[in-house]
Design goal:
Elements (H helix, E strand, L loop, with lengths): L8 E2 L2 E2 H4 L4 H8 L3 H24 L13 H16 L15 H18 L4 H17 L4 H21 L3 H21 L3 H32 L5 H10 L1 H29 L5 H7 L1 H32 L3 H14 L1 H38 L25 H45 L23
Antiparallel strand pairs: 1-2
Helix pairs in contact: 2-15, 2-16, 3-9, 3-16, 4-5, 4-6, 5-6, 7-8, 7-15, 9-10, 9-11, 9-13, 9-16, 11-12, 11-13, 11-14, 13-14, 13-16, 14-15, 14-16, 15-16
Length: 463
């Protein structure tokens, strides 16, 4: 479907062509289209399903990434919590409770509370004790690496949003650094190297396919006023998955290769007497390699939003995508940082809106539907609370209904997360087009189509 392009001229000046930074906010508005949110939802479902499978087959983490306590302090708190659960509600500690794992104590707490409720002697003090113990077990229980990753990223993402709303740029910067830089280090130090390799590749592949489809949708809508279907967008991004993955992975692999080279050089040159003197003389070369690692890492992180859009807009190779992104950052650093700031502001505004809509949707629906219900199927329905206690004392049909309702609410919650992907790749595509215009002088309305040489605006020779 083609639309008519509108332009605004005042005294012969095309202001719409000169001032295009507002198109970043326009991309955020376009990211609310159902087709894009659907793609974002599919990305979330793939990532979460794979993550759950990974956690079910691997051992949980002993420490907590969102807590400042040491492992010893956490273990002491867990032992104390187990003791409290064993004697909860005035009961004597069961035999063998001193050998419980934290998972055993968590299961016992829920089962003993269900029995206590069934007896019909629940007081307000008992309810408060149960809620406090349950929240404590949720905070302290060991979690898998994927679940820990989700909690860590969600914690700092919410801190980023709150910092933006409070105009606290230091909090925003710390949150970005925590997600982009500190998180991979935490995963590596925890010993889950295969998680970084295998799950990391799945994450990158999902971002390239789903994010690439969203990016292509935004480019076609902005440049040609055409709306791609989900099938058309995914087909195009699938055809470009190799260069997209290469664009995202190659800088990181290059840094990893140099890092391994330096580690091996340190092992050889600084482990043998006398040879270490030669190693010391060559340390200046190591510093040069270290400088390369630092610069490539910085440019990679900063230019990351443009890597996938470059492939989807230009139909170019992964290497050319990296070259374009790096060169644009170097050529117009201040302008690019301004666009990044606008992208962050637009994402914050969009996320606050979508979170508000999701929360109201869950709460209003639960309140209206549950206002005249005759059973407890809707117990616990409404905005999702990670520390809410599970419903107990329900009949089997109420438990079944409550479980189905929870699935529907999780879909709404996942759509909210899926919008983050939709908003990011939509706005990042506009950032790429604006930077290309600033550096290459190429119109933001020019994108690759069939019959054009990839990476250029030159028609192919049919001969």
């Amino acid at each position: 479907m083609q639309g008519r392009q509108q332009k605004t001229y005042i005294d012969g000046i095309d202001f719409k062509n000169i001032f295009q930074f507002q198109s970043i906010f326009g991309a955020i508005a376009s990211s609310f289209q159902p087709v894009r949110i659907t793609i974002g939802l599919l990305m979330v479902l793939v990532i979460f399903a794979a993550g759950r499978i990974w956690d079910s087959t691997s051992s949980p983490l002993i420490d907590s990434w969102t807590s400042s306590e040491s492992i010893q302090e956490l273990e002491e708190q867990r032992m104390l919590t187990i003791a409290k659960i064993a004697t909860a509600f005035g009961h004597s500690a069961p035999a063998g409770s001193n050998e419980w794992t934290f998972s055993d104590a968590h299961t016992y707490l829920i089962e003993s509370w269900e029995d206590y409720v069934y007896e019909g002697t629940v007081s307000d003090a008992d309810m408060l004790e149960y809620q406090q113990l349950y929240e404590l077990t949720e905070q302290l229980k060991p979690r898998g690496v994927f679940e820990s990753s989700c909690l860590y990223i969600a914690h700092h993402w919410n801190a980023l949003i709150n910092g933006a709303l409070d105009l606290d740029f230091s909090v925003m910067w710390k949150s970005v650094v925590a997600i982009v830089w500190d998180y991979p280090i935490l995963v590596w130090q925890s010993g889950h190297h295969w998680f970084i390799s295998l799950f990391g590749f799945l994450l990158i592949f999902t971002l390239c396919i789903g994010g690439g489809a969203i990016s292509r949708m935004q480019a076609c809508q902005f440049a040609r006023q055409s709306q791609l279907s989900i099938d058309e967008a995914l087909t195009y991004s699938w055809s470009q998955w190799r260069p997209a993955v290469l664009a995202v992975v190659s800088p990181a692999m290059f840094v990893a290769g140099i890092s391994i080279l330096l580690m091996l050089a340190g092992l050889v040159l600084f482990s043998i007497p006398i040879i270490n003197v030669i190693g010391s003389l060559l340390y200046g070369i190591a510093l040069i390699f270290g400088l390369c690692i630092a610069l490539i890492s910085i440019f990679y992180v900063v230019s990351f939003p443009m890597l996938v859009p470059a492939v989807m807009v230009e139909h170019c190779s992964g290497g050319e995508s990296v070259q374009r992104a790096f060169s644009y950052v170097i050529a117009r650093s201040l302008q690019y940082l301004t666009y990044l700031l606008l992208l962050v502001i637009a994402m914050v505004i969009g996320f606050v809106f979508v979170r508000l809509v999701a929360t109201l949707t869950l709460d209003v629906t639960a309140a209206l539907v549950g206002s005249m219900t005759l059973n407890d199927s809707l117990q616990g329905a409404g905005a999702i609370d990670s520390l809410s206690t599970p419903a107990t004392g329900l009949a089997w049909y109420e438990q079944a209904g409550s479980a189905i309702i929870s699935c529907w609410e999780i879909i709404v919650h996942d759509c909210m997360i899926g919008w983050v992907f939709s908003g990011f790749f939509s706005a990042s595509t506009m950032v790429y087009l604006l930077m290309r215009r600033a550096c290459d002088g190429q119109s933001t309305k020019e994108i690759w189509t069939e019959g054009i040489i990839p990476g250029t605006n030159i028609p192919m020779n049919d001969e």
